[in-house]
Amino acid sequence: MANFLGYKCSLCGADYAPDQIQYVCPHHGDMGNVDVALDYAAIKKAASPESISSSRDNSIWRYAPLLPLDLLLDLRVLKELGDLMRVGWTPLYHADRLASSLGLKNLFVKDDGRNPTASFKDRASAIVVARSKEINAPVIAAASTGNAGAALAGMAAATGMKAIIFAPKTAPQAKVAQLLMFGAKVLLVNGNYDQAFDLTLQASREFGWYCRNTGYNPFTVEGKKTAAYEICEQLAISNLQSPISKWHAPDRVFVSVGDGNIISGIWKGFKDLLALGWIDKMPKLMGVQSEGSAACANAWKANTETITPVVANTIADSISVDLPRDGVRAVRAVRETNGAYVVVSDDEILAAMRDLARGVAVFAEPAGATAHAGLTKAVKEKMIDENETVVVMNTGNGLKDVKSAMQAAGEAVVIEPDLQAVKRALS
Ligand SMILES: *Cc1c(COP(=O)(O)O)cnc(C)c1O
Ligand SMILES: [Zn+2]
């Protein structure tokens, strides 16, 4: 595309042309994740906040001018994708009751559980599938704790492609059901997510599949950044700015972190908008990790970019990783925006699931509610001024993991079918 300049290695800064590499910088094994470099001057000529805000495409495809995909220049292709994949433009709720219970004035919850396969991962899979069309790759493979695979399987079904998913055999049943229902080839690995990740890399090389693995594939970040665009555009709309000549950045965004690709993507989105002059400030990014899987938080605290693997163990399966595959960028996202990492326990995650559901009617899976658990803790530790505009990102729907939901909510009472039993139950 006119706006796709190439790649820049996040570790050594080496530049590559768009056709020079497909995944990572060759100097660092599988770990040299690269950033997509965009031609901001060309984007400014092609689009503006006004032009995008007047779009009636209520999906990520409204941001086509900011995405590094040639095929999106073809309006017919764009229409076809929009008809098939209604990803993004998820609601940004003004959570007044939740805010006052925390002593805040401007709290928003963005519910990405409302995506087609019910998680934030749809953003990445949509862009990777579009990219696979562009490079004529018929088969896409991914390692996943469940959601990335479900998203890829769904997008593959929408566009008639073949998906192969490697997931740990402990993945929640609903997520495995999604994989199977969408017709993906499902390989449940007798091991953890990290082992599934490495196996997917090996198998993709062996069989020539296009590999969607998080972070390793540079287009995952390019999909995930659209959440930052939506936050700023939706805040401008809710501020009733008209005409919308500028978008509005929040003060702080809370994001749960596993591999660190979502927070890296959201950071990239804000950087794009800042470079374009469409927002005025960089929000502080707050990474939230489970204490059972806190490799990024540990590195941030130690003020290093060396990510030391942990032995992950948390109820939040979507963020349960030993070695974060986008750890370096995830640490930088927080450090360079003057944010912080917050670490929470499984009990705090379960409490946050109840608070989100009862305070703003957002039913989150454990990893999704982890962001809110981070906000709750940050408020307690007086890290936040009451006047700040704060966004909590829910990344996954609670129906994906009913077992954890029951653990958070408790069991219902069973009664005999008579009024006396009702009275006893209510007393
Ligand atoms: C993948 C995922 C995350 C974490 O994203 P990373 O890029 O791995 O940090 C958080 N929540 C949910 C529901 C997810 O599926
Ligand atoms: Zn490099």
Describe this structure in words.
This protein is α/β, with parallel strands linked by helices. The protein has a domain at 92-117 and 220-409: Rossmann fold. Helix content is 42%, strand content 15%. It has helices at residues 40-46, 49-53, 75-84, 96-102, 121-134, 147-159, 173-181, 193-207, 219-224, 226-238, 261-276, 295-301, 327-336, 346-360, 366-380, 402-409, 419-426, and strands at residues 4-9, 15-16, 34-38, 92-94, 106-111, 139-143, 162-168, 185-189, 210-211, 252-256, 284-290, 340-344, 389-394. Strands 4-5-13-10-11-12 form a six-stranded mixed β-sheet, sandwiched between helices. The protein has a four-stranded parallel β-sheet with strand order 8-7-6-9, with helices on both faces. The mean pLDDT is 96. Bound molecules: pyridoxal-5'-phosphate and zinc ion.
- Find the structural class using helix and strand composition: alpha/beta
Q: What percentage of amino acids are in beta strands?
A: 5-15%
User: Which molecules are bound besides the chains?
Assistant: pyridoxal-5'-phosphate, zinc ion
Counted beta strands:
13
Global mean pLDDT = 96
End-to-end distance: 67 Å
Can you count the helices?
Answer: 17
Order of helices and strands: EEEHHHEHEHEHEHEHEHHEHEHHEHHEHH
Q: CATH topology of the domain at 92-117 and 220-409, which one?
A: Rossmann fold
Q: Helix amount, in percent? A: 40-55%
What sort of overall outline do the alpha carbons produce when their principal axes are compared? globular
- Quick one: CATH class of the domain at 92-117 and 220-409? Alpha Beta
Order of strands across the biggest sheet?
A: 4-5-13-10-11-12
How many strands, what sense, and barrel or not for the largest sheet? Answer: 6 strands, mixed
| Second rung of CATH, namely the architecture of the domain at 92-117 and 220-409 | 3-Layer(aba) Sandwich
Oligomeric status of the shown chains? single chain
| Rg, nearest Å | 21 Å
